[in-house]
Design a protein that fits this description.
Helix content is about 35%, strand content about 20%. It is of the alpha/beta class. The protein has a five-stranded parallel sheet with strand order 4-3-5-6-7, with helices on both faces. The termini are far apart.
Amino acid sequence: MAILDPTTASDRPPPPPRDRCCAVREAATAELDAFEALDRAGVRAWQRDRLREQVAHARRHAPFYRHRLRALPPAAGEDPAQLPFTTKDDLRGGYPFGLLAVPLADVARYGESTGTTGAPTSSAITYQDWVRGNVSTARSLAHRFGPGDLVFVAIPYELSFAAYDLDRALETVGAAVVGTGILSAVCPVERTARMIAELRPAGIVCSPTRALRLHDLLRDAGHDPAALGVRTVLYVGETCSPAKLAKISRLWQAELVPAYGTTETNSLALSCALGRAHLTEDRHLFEVLDPDDATPLAAGRAGELVLSTLLAQAMPLLRYRTGDLVSVDPDPCPCGSVRATVRHHGRVGDRLHVAGRTLDRLDLEEAVLSVSGTGLYYAAGVVGEALHLRVECPDRPAHLVRREVADRVRARFGVTPEVGEVDRATVGRAMDAMLKPGNLTLADLDAAR
């Protein structure tokens, strides 16, 4: 399966737009069907061949990799361990076109990261890159949506691929799209809530924390969100503990289904009919490594996700350190897909370091929110040498809930936290000012008082 030679792509007259769209989509669908028919041994062989081609493409056409790979032997590429890592700093240093491997005329979409954690990084895809990903997204969404369904897309449209990818895929499966975005002066979260009450959609695409905020606004306006007909909340943009997911599901009486991706790659995991997130192994080679020493981890252990693109034309990435903590299930999914399933645990940089211990935020969230009497929200941080927690306590006396949270965290992590209370109004004010409300911190709560 040869990669398009970008030196000749722009020399050929393009086919008519309609024919081009249909032909590329049909080819991408056939590719996906052929991949799904492989067994695991076939997947490994297929990925090895594609990686070799991708390395050659990157070395030949991307300025960054032409320099980075110049010392490697020509045959390098079958074994990812032979390749150097690519980091977020590399992407920042190559901004905007240092990693581009096609002429600008072949780029169909360009995007950038939010820049909330540093200088922005760029991303680019060709039309074929775009359609390959969109076919996979549409196949995933078809398990839950179809003609007659109205779906709100309440994630950022600006500079990202994810909202548009989901938007187009929903159209493909026959659903009607309401593109509200977030943090918009035209459609603030209060208007989104009012529209949900009026339009009664079948689904909402948003972060888990945004789903909670929408629920609160609807309830405060006198509506019962569980009675509005929402069947599915497709959650993206943040990780979520089982305890929090269960609470959101009960509130909405809806199924919560994950999708996972990055700015640089678009989708990396999409859900099957059983709601499990399957890695896009037809387009990426994945490794799970120890985030501290970069050694490989056994299947099932949580570590940093490192990926190599396999078919990317515009912006190949080789051993890109995503900074995301994941675990890959060693057992096949009962749905029958050959692709492995993954659980996203959060960001490596979001781990808390206290008293000589490293705490996974998702594990901490599970410990806190599984305590009876906790609400929907909490925040954590390290102040000096101590772990500080603030929890919502709507259903039981706060002093009892706070004591039980402290006991649970001490038993689970060997760390004794300082536990305070937070009210939902303060959380709401903080969240409405945040692009990623799942990253709620003690500083955000203090600023919202």
